[in-house]
Amino acid sequence: MTTQLDSPEQLAALRSPVDPPPATRRRRSFVPRDPKTYIFLAVTAVLLWEIAIPLLILLWGTVSGARPGADDYFSPSSLTLDNFERAFAGSRLTETFWDTFLFATGTTVVAFAMGTYLAWVVERTNTPLRGFITLMMVLRLILPGILTTISWIFLASPNVGTLNRWAQDLFGLAEPPLNIYSMPGMIWVEAMDILPLVFLLMSAALRSMDPSLEEASLVSGKGLLTTTRQITLPLILPAILATLILLFIRGIETFEVPALIGIPAQRFTFVVEVWRQSSTTPSDFGVAAVYATLILAFCSCLLWFYNRMTRHADAFAVVTGKAFRPRRTDLGPARWATLAGALLIIVFSLGLPMIILIWASLYPPFRGFQPITAEGFGLLSFDNYRAILDQDLVIRAFVNSTILGLSSAAAVVLLMTIVAWITVKTDIKGRKWLDHLSFAPIAIPAVAMGVAFLWLYLSVPIPVYGTIWILFLLYIARFTAVALRIMSASMTQLNNELHEAAEVAGASWWRSFRTITMPLLRPGMLAAFIFVLVHAYRELSASLLVYSYGNEPIGVAIFEIWENGSYGLLAAFGILVVLALTVFSVIARLISSRYGVKEE
Amino acid sequence: MSIQVTDLLKTFAGGSVRAVDEINFSVPSGSVLTLLGPSGCGKTTTMRSIAGLEKPDGGSITIGDRVVYSVPQRINLRPNQRKVGMVFQSYAIWPHMTVFDNVAYPLKGNADKATTKERSMRALELVGLDHLAGRRAPNLSGGQQQRVALARALVAQPEVLLLDEPFSNLDAKLRDQMRKEIRELQQSLGITTLYVTHDQSEALAISDYVAVMSQGHIVDFGDPERIYSRPASRSVAEFIGMANVVELSALRAEGGTWVGESSLGPIAVEQAGRPPATCSVLIRLEDLHFVPGSDAGRPNVWPGRVVSAIYLGSFWECEIEVNGQRLRTHVPRRQRPSEGQTVHVEVPPDRLYLLPEDDRGPIAGTGPDEDDPVAEKSA
């Protein structure tokens, strides 16, 4: 059917014939950008209070001579530079710096080597049991750091360490060969704790490489070694550097190993110093503030480099739209050797700690802790597990952590969904700063945040100190970055056109958001929720600063039981916590695979 | 340097999927052979096996006088030992190097700096990119990346050139241009070339020989004209170009022609040799045309009615109903067919071809690339 459009009049007649009725027009002008702006301001205010204000308190603490909570804390008359004098006095600073540097570097190197080896084995070779290796790494990731640190003490302490006892019995040694209370011991335990993270990061990097880039090199006449050197490595380099930086930041910020192993070994990192100066007597808040600020400044610089590296990595990503099958090297019989190496790492990282923890939980209480020996087997019983039910602290801790976890996860996910939406889907001015603000906690060590929250709520007349609310507020600040990463990714994957198609089909903006956008976001929100929940269960160092009797979360409870020396009870408690976390993770995996959430 | 492939077998999923099912073919020295077929037919797997990027499960491959893969002789040369040049579908240009470094890469370590520079620049001149030698690789357009990939494949003067669907990421006009350029290049260099594509018009334009593949088998082999006008089976006919295929029965010889009964009526076919026992007749769209009603009664003239007519610029694509059977044809644009119009159509007896019955079924993805207007127009 052809219509002859010969005249301009006919052409004009084809244009939209009727103006929309006046009522619609007036209503349209009342759907302003204002709701978005109000939301933006509200969320910004919350995050400023949660993150920026505590930071400012911390900075203020470096130059204030008064105690937090005192009337003159905020007055300019308390300004002083004495804190810096004491912090930089004598050899304390250089020793602390050296210990921190050594610890962070050692951990980075060891964890990177082992984690990358495992990633290479799983992603790039035909070693058998790759799925099993991956599963073990994921399981290891959810274990709380304090439990694994304690298990290594059980394994390698000079007096009662199981490995030492075995070695001495086997080789007839007079002195125990391993001393966990040393810098090498610290580095080893922390590396074992963090290598699953390296595995995940490097696996992702290896997976994202277009195999045809390597194949083109092979076809051009270069062997495997040259190809790896000239093609694979340069392209993965940004990801490698990013991982190394992240590891180093973690090494500086970690608490459990430097506290439980470092202090007896007389090796003090900055984080431990901050804690000691804040919570043990005599306390020196000024010095604590100075050290915390130092860590902060340094980690922020590192974070800036990290961001540059990840941006570089994206620039090298070759997007062809086709699914990659990464190149696997056929190792032939050598693959059994690589498997043996991988299994060895898993034994040390996951197997031994779990075994000793189970042993300790079954060893009868009130007999002190003994290493694994044949005679000991006869004494095993479930007494510790029975005793747990009588322990108020344990039950309280489970309840507290569950309440805190669920509530803070809900709050954080809700907040970060809004932030992600503002950042990714709107053009509100200043949204980049909201993004930066929410990610800032990565550079803030948990201890420093705990200290800042402590001082903040001692100084302002908001009565949360001494209640569980201070922990609630703290957890929100702690976990914004974690949740935002997931929600940003979800938001980016959300195709605008889905929402637009709904609007074209007649739905209002709100209805389209409710029926199209939100359901599509739900898997991401669920994944972020469970992620934060698991993190909340593991939280220790920040909570240590602000908890009070009756509000102990699990991490703090474990710490207290450790200090009391009830090792059997602690181990039984730990096993229960591990079981709970495993259940959460399994649920999370089921949900993500069911709804197709991309794993970060 | 010819390529010989004998009994090549490649299976997946523990042997249950035969991606390449014991195929045999050879590429004569200096010529272009195209492996043509839809996705999943095994053409890319075959090419990758020749390059050494896939490990086959049986057969042998010879390049020139060298056996590069052979199960009985237990030879399997690694890709870097096979001396082939390959252009990947994604071009595989290394983003962390400049254009020059990309092209010079195969020569590094095998020649001194001066020779490397000279040969690399010559390769870049060959593809017209010598002025971009210092540009960093990510800052190139798709067409430029493709030329860099070509220069890199040729710089070491390989014995054989492999091209894996090199034009599928380019727009139509660029595709035409590159097609011509690569053909000219190949002919001036005289290099044996294996080409893989799913685009049948590309295959016809660029090849000396075409091997049509389906589900791991080669279902037809020959030069482009033979493949197009005398395909080996109905499914090949429907895959290459656009076709009407009409079943024939009661085939008999009358005078110098074969005459058979069909739903259209009697059809006369001029074809040498014995036709297959059961067959159909292939009517290419461009051979079926309108004739005036006065021609009714002549052989191969049938009355019909225009069911649909789509204007495509240089011609109309029409569907004609003849005795209940639908035939498609291309009608010159000035003839302006309209729906419902009664017409007479004719196809000259010497333009028909008798096809044997297919026992393999249709090649999945029948007809030319539907997204490719160039293919439709030139069919």
Number of helices of chain B: 9
Separate helix tally of chain A: 25
What value does the Rg of chain A take, in angstroms?
Answer: 28 Å
CATH fourth-tier homologous superfamily of the largest domain in chain B: P-loop containing nucleotide triphosphate hydrolases
What characteristic shape of chain A results from the CA principal axes? globular
In one word, what is the shape of chain B? Answer: globular
Query: What is the N-to-C order of secondary-structure elements of chain A (H for helix, E for strand)?
Result: HHHHHHHHHHHHHHHHHHHHHHHHH
What is the count of β-strands of chain A? 0
Oligomeric state of the chains?
Answer: heterodimer
Average residue-wise pLDDT of chain A: 84
Mean pLDDT of chain B: 86
Superfamily (CATH H level) name of the largest domain in chain A:
MetI-like
Number of domains of chain A: 2
CATH architecture field of the largest domain in chain A: Orthogonal Bundle
Class per helix and strand makeup of chain A: mainly alpha
Which structural class should the secondary elements of chain B be placed in? Answer: alpha+beta
Biggest beta sheet summary of chain A: none
CATH secondary-structure class of the largest domain in chain B: Alpha Beta
What is the CATH architecture descriptor of the largest domain in chain B?
3-Layer(aba) Sandwich
* Count of structural domains of chain B: 2
Largest sheet of chain B: 6 strands, mixed
Q: How is this structure best described in words?
A:
- The complex is a heterodimer of chains A (600) and B (379).
- With 600 residues, chain A is mostly helical.
- Chain A contains 25 helices and no strands.
- In chain A, helix 3 crosses helix 19 and helix 17 runs antiparallel to helix 18 (431-439).
- Chain B is of the alpha+beta class.
- Chain B has 2 domains: 3-227, Rossmann fold, CATH 3.40.50.300; 231-378, OB fold (Dihydrolipoamide Acetyltransferase, E2P) (Beta Barrel).
- Chain B has a 6-stranded mixed β-sheet with strand order 7-8-9-3-10-11, with helices on both faces. Chain B has a 5-stranded antiparallel β-sheet with strand order 2-1-4-5-6, covered by helices on one side.
- The radius of gyration of chain B is 24 Å and the shape is globular.
- Chain B starts with a strand and ends with a helix.
- Classes of the chains: A mainly alpha (600), B alpha+beta (379).
- Chain A binds chain B through residues 210, 212-213, 215-223, 226, 230-231, 234-235, 315-316, 318, 320, 322, 330, and chain B through 51-53, 55, 78-86, 88-90, 92, 94-96, 105-106, 109-110, 138, 149, 152, 156, 169.
